[in-house]
Design a protein that fits this description.
Layout (H helix, E strand, L loop, with lengths): L4 H19 L8 H11 L6 H12 L8 H19 L8 E2 L2 E2 L1 H5 L1 H22 L2 H11 L4 H23 L11 H27 L3 H26 L3 H5 L1 H17 L9 H12 L3
Antiparallel strand pairs: 1-2
Bound molecules: geranylgeranyl diphosphate (GRG).
Geranylgeranyl diphosphate binds next to helix 4, helix 8 and helix 9.
Length: 287
Amino acid sequence: MNMDIKKYISKKKKVIDKALDKFLPSSKTRPQALHKAMRYAVFPGGKRIRPILTLASFEACGGNSNKILPVACGIELIHTYTLIHDDLPCMDNDDYRRGRLSCHKKSGEDIALLAGDALLTLAFQLFSEHGNREIIKEVSRAIGSQGTIGGQVADIEAKSEKRKATLRQAQGRPEQGRGTKNENLNYIANHKTGALFEVAVKSGGIFKGVGKKKINSLGNFGRLFGFTFQLIDDLMDGDGYAKAYGRERTRNMAGDSNDKAKKGLKVFGNRAARLVEIADLVLKRRS
Ligand code: GRG
């Protein structure tokens, strides 16, 4: 239990990658193009922070088996689907992801779109085969029209408002319309980013079968963790909150949000040490 947090994360990442490899159809399975694209998006992957949080949350609740792995992998598959779709030309139109071609640049838009759909579907297959009804309910709520997808739509709308405002300014016409107000920034962060973090953490507790009070504490931690994560991400990219509030205030907000998140874990005692350490690591993140 005294293992360094970075070692803990790298160990969990390996375990998650092995499980993901097992759950994803091989690239030789028909239709090969689709399975290749799914695997291209999942491997080598990114930080795997969401499934690691699911594992750490399960441990905070007293869990200590690999039975939680399919649930954790399902969460990562959902994250991957959002990234594939977010990169598509009709969304952010990004040619690169994680330093290499984005999925649609590699496989074509049609296959990339379907690879995202298939990853999302596989996630729910894993939840139904290895998780439980409550996990399916919580995840579907978190990532639906009033969750991640809702946040993505608010983001799209905010960007379009911003474009219109810039055009109006260039034409010397007075400012009108909504623009990206701070409350809208919070809506976007809590839905687009926070909702999946919240359910990733909650799922560990739901799988272990702990009571409602503990599930709520985990959910609060996950939501605040997601907010801190977004603030730090914006500081690294110089946009979002960093642009709206300035770097110093954004950094302070991240510190406050992290303190609040950790306070809510007191009920788990020492078992929540990993969650606390991961939260502190995210706060310190510079790349
Ligand atoms: C429903 C299509 C759709 C999109 C949902 C999640 C999302 C919205 C879009 C992804 C783009 C983005 C910048 C979202 C903000 C959250 C965020 C910082 C995601 C990146 O997560 P990391 O840093 O990624 O955990 P890695 O590469 O480590 O997996």
